[in-house]
């Protein structure tokens, strides 16, 4: 009988519960003892773990957040923290660990692999900033949340004839802004990857207004600047009343979509299969609808590319 562990780390993402459930259920199905580790690497260092049963993960597939809770651990980044984590894993006889989280969390899994612990990464972040997988768990739910919010903002934007700028999450990766900009019919999309001058955004707003457009919706990623500042600049330059909305953590909550639940179930189960096959140093993902497993080092070295086709299309359709 193998003993495995599972934790969620970094920013939470809808679908993490479905991934934990898949790890626990596939583990137990394969006669493993499964420990759930609370509060990510912080909880691992402090031995906050409990054995999971089939019913520990009952009634969670549809719930947002992570019932194991999460944290961003500074101590785990230190040599001493890493050593403490290894000691806990050794004491409990954990032979394989599944780490569900974003790039920082998966990099943490690699640190464990380097000191002889088998750790497998599962991408869980709303940011969708990992190049090796087409989608990370939580992204689909987040973009649906944003699209719902901007549809409401569009209503009031039209009523008042205003410009509304909506800031969404994404420090380095503009995927949320990009795909929601396309789905929400935004006039302009401002991303960290592409310098887009406020003047060109203003030109588009004025052209639209002259054509009789009632509203103007602009989507921007947090990494591209401050919506409040840009709103002021737009108002000065266009003389149109402009409002800024920062959607914030609303994007990280809510029931996961069917897409995220399915993705999480497939990836969580695959991570367990890999541990049982004796594989290490890998992270799982989904490419062209196929579950893939790739070396963590390779996966994290891939620079996330912006989907230029989608960006250009959004530009054409919002002309
Ligand atoms: O990494 C996910 C993310 O949601 C980013 O998009 C965002 O900038 C950040 O987390 C916010 O994190 P915190 O939980 O520290 O507010």
Automatic annotation (TrEMBL):
One of its GO terms (cellular component) is 6-phosphofructokinase complex. One of its GO terms (molecular function) is ATP binding. Substrate binds at residues 125-127, 162, 169-171, 222, 243, 249-252. Pathway: Carbohydrate degradation; glycolysis; D-glyceraldehyde 3-phosphate and glycerone phosphate from D-glucose: step 3/4. InterPro entries: ATP_PFK, ATP_PFK_prok-type, PFKA_ATP_prok, Phosphofructokinase_CS, Phosphofructokinase_dom, PKF_sf. Its EC number is 2.7.1.11. Keywords: Allosteric enzyme, ATP-binding, Cytoplasm, Glycolysis, Kinase, Magnesium, Metal-binding, Nucleotide-binding, Transferase. Catalyzes the phosphorylation of D-fructose 6-phosphate to fructose 1,6-bisphosphate by ATP, the first committing step of glycolysis. This is ATP-dependent 6-phosphofructokinase. It comes from Tindallia californiensis.
């Amino acid at each position: 009988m193998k003993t495995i562990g599972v934790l969620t780390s970094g920013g939470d993402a809808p679908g993490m519960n479905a991934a934990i459930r898949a790890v626990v259920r596939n583990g137990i199905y394969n006669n493993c003892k499964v420990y759930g580790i609370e509060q990510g690497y912080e909880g691992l260092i402090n031995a906050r773990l409990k054995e999971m049963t089939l019913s520990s993960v009952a009634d969670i597939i549809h719930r947002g957040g992570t019932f194991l809770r999460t944290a961003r651990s500074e101590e785990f980044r230190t040599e001493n923290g890493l050593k403490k984590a290894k000691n806990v894993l050794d004491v409990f006889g954990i032979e394989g660990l599944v780490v569900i989280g974003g790039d920082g969390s998966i990099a943490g899994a690699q640190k464990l692999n380097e000191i002889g612990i088998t750790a497998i990464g599962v991408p869980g972040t709303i940011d969708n900033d990992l190049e090796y997988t087409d989608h990370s768990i939580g992204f689909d739910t987040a973009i649906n949340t944003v699209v719902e919010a901007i549809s409401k903002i569009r209503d009031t934007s039209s009523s008042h004839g205003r410009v509304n700028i909506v800031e969404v999450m994404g420090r380095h990766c503009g995927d949320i802004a990009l795909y929601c900009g396309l789905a929400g019919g935004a006039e302009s999309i401002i991303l960290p990857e592409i310098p887009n001058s406020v003047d060109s955004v203003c030109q588009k707003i004025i052209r639209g207004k002259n054509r009789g457009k009632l509203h103007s919706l602009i989507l921007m990623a947090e990494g591209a600047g401050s919506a409040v500042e840009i709103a002021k600049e737009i108002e000065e330059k266009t003389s149109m009343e402009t409002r800024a909305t920062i959607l914030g953590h609303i994007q990280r909550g809510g029931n996961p979509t069917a897409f995220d639940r399915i993705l999480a179930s497939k990836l969580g189960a695959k991570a367990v299969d890999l541990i049982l096959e004796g594989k290490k140093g890998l992270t799982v993902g989904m490419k062209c609808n196929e579950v893939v497993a790739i070396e963590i080092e390779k996966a994290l070295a891939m620079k996330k590319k912006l989907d230029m086709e989608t960006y250009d299309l959004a530009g054409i359709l919002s002309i």
